[in-house]
Write a structure and sequence with these properties.
InterPro entries: Mur-like_cat_sf, Mur_ligase_C, Mur_ligase_C_dom_sf, Mur_ligase_cen, MurD
Helix content: 25-40%
Pfam families: Mur_ligase_C (PF02875), Mur_ligase_M (PF08245), MurD-like_N (PF21799)
CATH topology of the largest domain: UDP-N-acetylmuramoyl-L-alanine:D-glutamate ligase
Organism: Rhinopithecimicrobium faecis
Structural class: alpha/beta
Enzyme class: ligase
Shape: globular
GO molecular function, one term: UDP-N-acetylmuramoylalanine-D-glutamate ligase activity
Strand content: 15-25%
CATH architecture of the largest domain: 3-Layer(aba) Sandwich
Distance between the termini: 53 Å
Radius of gyration: 23 Å
Length: about 450
């Protein structure tokens, strides 16, 4: 299945893990279990829970800096996906000719479980969780990992699953070379993280298409026929895998599409065709139909029965911080979409609501182009409440598209402003389009502060 040939990397000797987060600590534990002499190095301070885990496992570590000379003596380096190729330590390692790989690449060689892998600029967490929910409901022995939950490496070391549903980011894909996905999904590709890709969209697209490297005729590839960047990328990247498309714009002889009366139709040629009214799906909105299509196709190629698939798709509860309903207060609905860290995610969020919206927007701008939101803002947004230190770009982008744009000084202030502006029947929507680290620890902290402020009203 997904095992990497032993010829590619040393199977014992000295291994250094760069980065002591969830991914790094899990990798260190797996490496120790497999007989490596392991050391962990982090340029920053290691969180107490991870430090305690390393101490309990007897794995040596350093923090607040890298001992480069010692690291260069290692046989193999496994790095955190958050460390860019341009970091001084990585440049030194590559110049020395040392193999530098990621957690997913490393852990995959120690399991023969089926790897069901999902990437995309938007929707990958939702699709990963929905797929996991479906397979659990079907009674499969399945793990959840990647860019979500407990690290893949730790689960390979200490658990025993027959399947893994893996959420894979482009940063993870950049450190994967011989890894093979049994099922590879590319949901969509829109501009994001371009600072890691020389500000070239083509480089980012190529990173996403690393998902289908090494696939064989025994594997499956699922992609969106309606996504222009994916279609353009297909011209440069071929696969031997069995290929299925998802689309809402045409009908297919196989794959997933919208049939008559907004029926979700899935046919993977592995059994009876699946049909389900989109109104019965637990996940609402046009973008979530794509997510449901992808999850449904994964389920069908795993030969999940139609009755189980239908029940699971109707019963799923969405992940926190992704169009998460928080409360309805005085007739105003409050929704937490803190995970929307790019402009396309906000487009999907706005598209999902039919009520007037007071939009909480802003944070650390990643070179956002807000032009695609202008029509939706004109049609749906009553007011914008700006978050973050620099809000000038938001004012410039939308000053002619909505009646009111105001700046907040904290999340509590933002929620108070929004509640005063909103009218009965409106939705107050936190969907920032930006990174969170000017005011918050991460998007989860931002969403949690939003929820706390709402519940304090």
């Amino acid at each position: 299945m997904a095992i990497i040939s032993k010829e590619f990397y040393p199977q014992a000797g000295s291994l250094v893990v760069l980065g002591a987060g969830e991914s790094g600590v899990g990798t260190a534990i797996l490496a120790k279990d497999k007989g490596f002499k392991v050391r962990v190095s982090d340029s920053g301070q290691i969180a107490e829970r991870y430090k305690n885990q390393l101490l309990q496992e007897g794995i040596p570590f350093e923090e607040a800096g890298h001992s480069t000379a010692e690291i260069l003596k290692a046989d193999l380096i496994v790095k955190s996906p958050g460390i860019p190729e341009t970091a001084a330590i990585i440049v030194s390692l590559k110049e020395a000719g040392l193999p530098v790989i990621g957690e997913i690449e490393f852990a995959a060689q120690y399991t023969d479980a089926k790897l069901l892998c999902i990437t995309g600029s938007n929707g990958k967490s939702t699709t990963t969780m929905l797929t996991y929910h479906i397979l659990k409901e079907a009674g499969l022995n399945v793990g959840l990992a990647g860019n979500i939950g407990q690290s893949f490496a730790y689960q390979v070391a200490r658990e025993s699953f027959d399947h893994y549903v893996l959420e894979i980011s482009s940063f993870m894909l950049d450190d994967m070379y011989h890894f093979r996905a049994d099922v590879a999904v590319i949901l969509n590709i829109t501009a994001d993280h371009l600072d890691r890709y020389d500000h070239k969209m083509e480089n980012y697209v190529d990173s996403k298409f690393r998902m289908i490297r090494n696939q064989t005729v025994a594997d499956y590839f699922i992609y969106c026929l309606d996504d222009p960047e994916t279609i353009a990328g297909l011209k440069r990247h071929q696969t031997e895998a069995v290929t299925f498309a998802i689309t809402q714009e045409q009908q297919l002889s196989q794959g997933a599409y919208l049939g008559a009366n907004k029926q979700l139709v899935i046919d993977a040629k592995t059994g009876e065709e699946f049909q389900m009214p989109t109104a019965e799906l637990a996940l609402k909105g046009k973008h979530n139909i794509y997510n449901s299509m992808a999850s449904g196709l994964i389920a069908k190629v795993q030969e999940i029965r139609n009755d189980i698939l239908k029940q699971a798709m109707a019963s799923y509860i969405n992940i926190p911080h992704r169009l998460e309903s928080v409360a309805t207060i005085s007739g105003v609905q409050y929704s937490n979409d803190s995970k929307a860290t790019n402009v396309n995610s906000v487009w999907y969020a706005l598209e999902s609501y039919n009520t007037p919206i007071v939009l909480l927007l802003g944070g650390v701008d990643k070179g956002n182009d807000y032009s695609i939101l202008k029509d939706l803002v004109k049609d749906k947004v009553r007011a914008i409440v700006c978050l973050g230190k620099d809000t000038s770009k938001i004012h410039e982008a939308f000053e002619s598209d909505t009646d009111l744009i105001v700046n907040a000084v904290s999340m509590e202030d933002a929620v108070a402003l929004a509640s005063n502006i909103a009218e009965k029947g409106d939705t107050v929507l936190l969907s920032p389009a930006c990174a969170s680290f000017d005011w918050f620890k991460n998007y989860e902290d931002r969403g949690d502060q939003f929820k706390a402020a709402v519940l304090a009203l």
